[in-house]
Design goal:
alpha+beta, Alpha-Beta Plaits
Length: 203
């Protein structure tokens, strides 16, 4: 599949874990709480409006009318272990993102047990989002400084394509406040494990 990249400029680098919320869904034909209908909701925004299954369905990334393409991505650690928000892991992730080809990372926030980031294709004919995520997760795992924390990552990921500037800016504003909501800092700018590797825009 051919992608169109978002408009970008090189940006600058800056230098809670809410976990998973379980929600029981009642089937229309069955009003009992069935454990098989339990859904996992990723620790992001709009929890009341949008739910996700244990294994998310990755819809095809589609080109927008103006040619720009930005995807919001959430990746979690295996068993929700709080092993990410550390200076050495922050540096490691930045390095694998910078040297990973095909997709560019824009703004990101690293929480103790999950990562939120925005990304955009680096070329018109890049690899799929799934292959790129697998690439950098594997690269980070191979260089992980603490072997006892393997396996590092949850198998899949959650993704949402940004359609408008309002959606994009609103999502980022919500995500950057995650450390505050998690009681990890008093203000968004105090959280050290965030940054912007490339400036992505939908224009």
């Amino acid at each position: 599949m051919k992608y169109r990249r978002a408009t970008l400029r090189r940006g600058r680098n800056k230098t809670g874990c809410n976990g998973w919320t379980l929600r029981n869904r009642r089937d229309k034909a069955d009003t009992t709480n069935n454990p098989d209908t339990t859904e996992r909701v990723p620790p992001t925004d709009n929890m009341d409006e949008r739910t996700q299954r244990k294994t998310p369905v990755h819809l095809p990334v589609r080109e927008s009318a103006n040619g720009a393409l930005i995807v919001f991505l959430t990746v979690c650690t295996n068993k929700k272990r709080p092993i990410l928000a550390r200076p050495d892991i922050h540096d490691l992730l930045k390095d694998v993102w910078i040297h990973g080809d095909h997709w560019l990372v824009g703004q990101y926030v690293i929480m103790p047990d999950h990562i939120h980031l925005f990304c955009s294709p680096d070329s018109l004919d890049c690899s799929s989002l799934t292959r790129w995520v697998q690439f950098w997760k594997s690269a980070a795992s191979r260089r992980w400084p603490r072997n006892e924390e393997q396996p590092v990552w949850q198998k899949s990921y959650w993704d949402t394509q940004m359609r408008t500037d309002e959606q994009y800016s609103g999502k980022w504003d919500y995500v950057r406040h995650n450390p505050v909501r998690g009681g990890l800092c008093q203000a968004p700018d105090e959280w050290l494990f965030q940054g912007e590797l490339n400036i992505l825009t939908l224009r």
